[in-house]
Automatic annotation (TrEMBL):
<keyword id="KW-0288">FMN</keyword>
<dbReference type="InterPro" id="IPR013785">
    <property type="entry name" value="Aldolase_TIM"/>
</dbReference>
<keyword id="KW-0285">Flavoprotein</keyword>
<dbReference type="Pfam" id="PF03060">
    <property type="entry name" value="NMO"/>
</dbReference>
<keyword id="KW-0503">Monooxygenase</keyword>
<keyword id="KW-0560">Oxidoreductase</keyword>
<dbReference type="InterPro" id="IPR004136">
    <property type="entry name" value="NMO"/>
</dbReference>
<protein>
    <submittedName>
        <fullName>Nitronate monooxygenase</fullName>
    </submittedName>
</protein>
<dbReference type="GO" id="GO:0004497">
    <property type="term" value="F:monooxygenase activity"/>
</dbReference>
Length: 353
């Protein structure tokens, strides 16, 4: 039986090093979603037994971010929630990073999803505040470096991941298996995961959790326009594409008119983000699609896991379905591992005659 509302603390059917590290019920991390993972969404996942992450960059200034932390603490009750710290390659855009971490610590946040280059300083600050750092990357080598830098766990996302999977072209489960040959800290695996059977598969591989984004885009608690969510429910797994390939920082998004306009400009030689103007900014999608429902405008982060999104429903219902599928698949695997009764040489010979 799985809850359709709040997960009951202590109900841990698939217990892992990450569920223990973060004190969560289920091995599901809902990675930060730029513009979308606000207090309501993050708290809904916390209450459902997963861990989600507020994205400070989504807010208009520190006061709005602080208010989101306060609201999320209240709405999550006693369940833990996290903050995503995505570092930009442009130093000027990281000016607030240390302050964002401090504010989160003041509001009781005990887990951070860090992303981007050189996380050492962030990890030191997070540890000094008594919290845990999970560093997310798209390359096995970067995950290993994060482990050396002191990350408590790593999240590895393959080429299927919605958003910015980096230039890594390898699929998630291949990256995960390669990483697990060398990692010692717990690992969450992500990219293209939208069904509970994949959660069981990731755990069977040796991962301690999954990280998911796209599948939760159709949660009732996601504030984006209803027309966009209805459109997403109808999309097959093939509906995503990789935009901005020539830039060196590709972006996995919903295939739409903006993607085709970007491709047209690339054919005319445009390469860098600045050359595409407003077209390649997240704000375009926020203003036209998330706010107004026009899913043809903006680069809208999304991956092939959208093929599993079949209804707009509360995040807790999605988590409950995922966990029911995962435990069923894990039981199937466990039953296959039951030792086959030894067959005597005589009986084996008789069966062949
Ligand atoms: C709409 C959307 C926005 C995202 N924004 C961010 C972000 O701001 N920072 C980040 O680290 N990851 C971001 N991601 C990536 C997710 O946190 C997660 O790693 C990814 O979605 C997992 O792959 P999946 O989409 O195949 O489930 C975003 C993903 C989506 C779908």
């Amino acid at each position: 039986m799985f809850p359709h509302q709040d997960a009951k603390p202590g109900a841990r059917p698939l217990r892992t090093r990450i569920t223990e590290l973060l004190d969560i019920e289920y091995p599901i991390l809902a990675g930060g979603l730029m513009w979308l993972s606000d207090a309501r969404y993050v708290a809904a996942l916390a209450r459902a037994g997963a861990m989600a992450f507020i994205t400070p960059r989504s807010f208009d200034g520190p006061e709005a971010y602080r208010a989101a932390l306060r609201d999320c603490s209240r709405m999550a009750g006693d369940r833990p929630f996290g903050v995503n710290i995505t570092q930009s390659r442009r130093a000027a855009e990281n000016a607030m990073v240390a302050a964002w971490i401090d504010m989160a610590l003041e509001h009781g946040v005990r887990c951070f999803e860090t992303v981007g280059p050189s996380p050492e300083r962030l990890i030191a600050q997070i540890h000094a505040g008594g919290a845990k750092a999970i560093h997310k990357s798209a390359f096995v080598e970067h995950a290993l470096k994060a482990e050396q830098a002191g990350a408590d766990a790593v999240a590895l996302v393959g080429a299927e991941a919605g958003g910015h999977p980096g230039t890594n072209k390898l699929p998630s489960f291949l990256c995960g298996a390669l990483a697990l040959q060398r990692l010692t800290v717990p690992m969450a695996l992500g990219g293209g995961i939208g069904d509970g059977r994949q959660i069981a598969a990731a755990l069977a591989l040796g991962a301690d959790a999954v990280v998911m984004g796209t599948r939760f885009l159709v949660s009732e608690e996601i504030w984006a326009h209803e027309n966009y969510k209805r459109h997403l429910v109808e999309q097959p797994a093939e509906a995503s594409t990789l935009a901005m390939r020539a830039s060196g920082n590709p972006w996995r998004v919903l295939d739409n008119a903006t993607v085709r306009e970007i491709e047209r400009l690339e054919q005319h030689g445009a390469r860098h983000y600045a050359e595409f103007g407003a077209l390649a900014t997240g704000r375009l999608g926020r203003d036209h699609c998330y706010r107004q429902g026009d899913w043809n405008t903006g680069l809208l982060s999304m991956g092939p896991a959208i093929g599993f999104a079949d209804a707009i429903e509360p995040a807790a219902s999605i988590v409950a379905r995922l966990m029911a599928q995962a435990t069923q698949a894990a039981s199937r695997l466990a039953s296959m591992a039951t030792p086959v009764p030894a067959v005597s040489a005589d009986a084996a010979l008789a069966s062949r005659l």
